[in-house]
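dude i think i finally got it to work??
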Amino acid sequence: MVFVTRVTGISSDVFKKGQTLAMANAAAEVPSEVMSSVPISHQHSYPYTEAWKWFHDPECAGVEIDKQTKRQYTRKRFELPGGETLDLKCDHRIRYCSKKELAQSYLESARHAAIVASDPSANISLKTAQECICDCIKECRNLHCICPICTGFKLKLEGLDKMRKEARKMETCTCPEP
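look at this
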């Protein structure tokens, strides 16, 4: 037995299990009762298009339409993890977090929970969820806030700095040096 294990790489436990299955198969009266050591594979595929659509929905808080460009993707294709190819016709979008964080937010979403509730064997990994993020969703490179409060404060600080530099040029200090 050790020689067979060394040559084939199959453990002795697998050989013993195969022997018990062979004896059970021989003892079966009806051919439909014959057991197999190969597990039955179920063809449950996750609906990757639903994940892809979720990243485009307003429900996805980490993504928004890029307001700096009005173009849409045309003549471009996107391949989902299951092998399905989509023709892109989406607006340019930006995300304010990493792909990993965005995929994690999908796994915590109500849409993913509903899919898993309807078919418990359908599941998706974090890496596969990241692969469902469309090419139209790019990372935000401009991290400056443009709200009125931040913009006003920034302009006031720039004005104060400019005034301070000009005041230093005009006035000289008459204090005695220590």
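The chain has a mean pLDDT of 81.
im so relieved honestly
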